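We emphasize that the prediction below concerns an isolated chain of 288 residues; any contacts that depend on oligomerization or on bound cofactors are therefore not represented. The input was used exactly as deposited, without trimming of termini.
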Amino acid sequence: MTLLKRSLRKALLVRTPENPDRSAPTVSDNTTVYFMVKCRPGTSAETFVRQMLSSVASRVHNKRKVLNYSSFRQYHNTKPGGLDALPLILTRTHRVVRSLCLLSDIAPPPVFSMNLTPYYDALIEFEFEDSPTDDQFAALELVGEIVESICGEVVTCECDKRYTIIGHPAPTRKPDSVFLTVITKTPWNRTMRQAQKYWIEQHAPIVVDNNEYLNLRGYQQVHTTTREESRLANEYSGVAFIEFGSISEFWRNNLTYDAMRINNTLALDEINLTIGSHINMFRCFDLS
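Result of the prediction step, given as a token string:
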């Protein structure tokens, strides 16, 4: 290895020693259903959010008895256009990931594209204590029709594992909290099950061991079901929610030298579980 490469590796990538005393994740086997929503072209961000928080929410509440959900949340961009997520999106582009791989003598992934602004504009999240019944799925389909009537695109996902790695099982209710949200795609060289196994068993410990630099308030992984009989589209491997106390806290934490080095390390490790993922900075609206 050349002196230049060693110097760059030391400057840009770092891993703290493994912590054998880290807490184990808390796992919930309930079911979470997501509607991943893209705003219809020509609709302003303000109008879209208002429609989602009023029209969609009221229709859901009208069907609350049959839906029988344990929680109902909507996640919306902190800023119109999703520009708050740009720093993390840039570090996950193919060009950056390829450079990190070459620096670390790792075979880079095939070419993939990243949207520099988030692809989806919102997430609708339903949690259920058990797998939804036929009546609950029928009600969810009606909710989907309502959402499609005001949105440009809707994709559904059923998840049957929720891991809380940092923080508490329920999202923080603080009004200023923001959630860096990653919708993961299965990488080119793994099955969904293999990618999810790496995500929780290998990647999550790296995040925990380096949290002294990242200062995350919370970190959850919600894994898409691998059951073939699922009724939903399930195009993605899962959803990660990474919580900060505020958007200003996110910026303060991620602009430090150590945090940037750790984020480079995490971006490199993420090729084992996802590439070309969708990244948003969301606020959570708990409408339960």
